[in-house]
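Field log, afternoon session.

UNIT: design team B
ACTIVITY: writing a sequence onto a fixed backbone
BACKBONE:
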């Protein structure tokens, strides 16, 4: 289960600064740092697909400890781990992620990142990466489905409708239909809530007016 935002992001060790700006000094320092394991390759975690590499970037509980298996990790790697939904042993983790992600990332940012991960793999000819994109898409659908109505901002709606348009253009009609229905259901719920609020306000105003007239 993801931890609080203060715990989820793994801090990289501070880089060693060479005493000189010369190319030779920089090269020597990089070689020294690499040998000592202090330099990490800058990787876009949202594009990772190898399960072992993903798990190497996550801090797990030690044997004998109580609580959830996942203890810490960057918000991106926790998101990526949640999209590994074809692994039956990670179903509970995905549910826990969807329940707790608001403690370290906003719904809008999460949707943007899921959108990015989906589009990164959706055109790949590789069967496994295609499956990664589909898994990511259905996690995105779950996120949208579980949005509170107050979280359904104009920016989120615009972003989601752009994705529906791209899905249609790419011939992914079944996926576009699923997401579009999800969006329309949320929009209708929000419209009904607003309408109900307007009616209650009007009735309250009318009641106050009648009370004044009777007085």
């Amino acid at each position: 289960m993801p931890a609080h935002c203060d715990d989820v992001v793994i801090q990289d060790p501070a880089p060693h600064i060479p005493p000189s700006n010369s190319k030779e000094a920089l090269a020597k320092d990089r070689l020294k740092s690499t040998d000592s394991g202090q330099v990490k390759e800058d990787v876009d975690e949202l594009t990772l697909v190898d399960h072992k590499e993903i798990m190497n970037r996550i801090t797990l509980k030690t044997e004998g400890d109580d609580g959830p298996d996942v203890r810490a990790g960057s918000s991106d790697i926790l998101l990526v781990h949640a999209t590994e939904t074809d692994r039956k042993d990670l179903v509970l983790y995905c549910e826990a992620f969807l329940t707790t992600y608001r403690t370290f990332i906003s719904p809008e940012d999460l949707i943007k990142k899921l959108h990015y991960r989906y589009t990164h793999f959706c055109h790949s000819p590789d069967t496994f990466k295609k499956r990664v994109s589909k898994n990511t898409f259905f996690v995105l659908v779950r996120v949208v489905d579980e949005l509170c109505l107050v979280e359904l901002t104009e920016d989120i709606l615009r972003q989601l409708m752009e994705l529906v348009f791209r899905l249609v253009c790419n011939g992914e009609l079944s996926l576009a239909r699923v997401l579009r229905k999800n969006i329309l259901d949320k929009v209708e719920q929000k419209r009904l809530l607003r309408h109900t609020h307007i009616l209650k306000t009007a009735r309250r105003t009318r009641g106050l007016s009648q009370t004044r007239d009777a007085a």
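LOG NOTE: Strands lie at 59-60, 70-72.
NEXT ACTIVITY: expression trials, pending approval
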